[in-house]
Design a protein that fits this description.
The chain is mostly beta strands and 198 residues long. The protein has one helix and 22 strands. It has one domain (2-197): Outer Surface Protein A, domain 3 (Alpha-Beta Complex), CATH 3.90.930. The strands form five sheets. Strands 1, 2, 3, 4, 5, 8, 9, 12, 13, 16, 17, 20, 21 and 22 form a 14-stranded antiparallel β-sheet that branches. Strands 6-7 form a two-stranded antiparallel ribbon. It has a two-stranded antiparallel sheet with strand order 10-11.
């Protein structure tokens, strides 16, 4: 197995991009580099525009972001964590996007490519002021919440503007949602009582 690198330059001679490939016997160009980013793109002023880590063509980096993108003023715009090609971060959001003022725009929690977060929203979106815009709850890539609305939207003045109730990726009316939750709790209590009597 051999590796090769391609570089492009701006007319002023400044490095524009550096890309590492895994060379195969075919003409396929597979992004690959283990000891650094497989792609690096730069602004004409020399500052880093973006980088991406890849392992055999899949975005991959253990314990750190696999991709980051910056403005020409070196402000972080986007950060993505990936493992073996899937969005994944055990310790926080796998995708973060930022406004040009540095304020968080959105955060999404993924585990092995599935939107997933227990006891908190898996997707959070914010206005440039920092006020919440939308919260969406997911469990195993299904819109789901058992202790309130799964989708909460807010007006820019931070007042709730719309809510939706979801169980197992199904949107329900509030009345049906509360009936389903009551039935689930009764079933769980009955099961726990049966286990205790054994």
């Amino acid at each position: 197995m051999s590796f090769y690198k391609k570089e492009t330059y701006y007319p002023n001679g400044q490095l524009e991009s550096r890309i590492y490939y895994l060379s195969k016997t075919t003409d396929d160009e597979i992004l690959h580099r283990l000891n650094g980013p497989a792609t690096e793109h730069f602004y004409e002023n020399g500052l880093l525009r973006s980088y991406m880590w890849c392992d055999r063509g899949k975005r991959h980096r253990a314990g750190a972001p696999a991709y980051e993108m910056f403005t020409e003023d070196n402000i972080l715009m986007c950060r993505i964590w990936c493992f073996d090609g899937d969005h994944h971060n055990d310790n926080g959001p796998a995708i973060e996007e930022f406004y040009s003022n540095g304020q968080i725009q959105s955060r999404s929690w993924y585990i092995h490519g599935n939107l997933h977060r227990i006891d908190a929203p898996a997707v959070e979106a914010y206005y440039s002021s920092g006020a919440p815009k939308e919260y969406v709850y997911y469990i195993n890539n299904k819109c789901h919440r058992e202790d309130g609305p799964a989708i909460e939207k807010f007006a820019s003045d931070n007042k709730p503007s719309n809510v939706m109730y979801c169980l197992d990726n199904k949107i329900l009316t509030p009345a049906i949602y509360h009936r389903q939750i009551t039935l689930r709790r009764l079933a769980t209590n009955a099961q726990n009582n049966n286990e205790l009597s054994l």
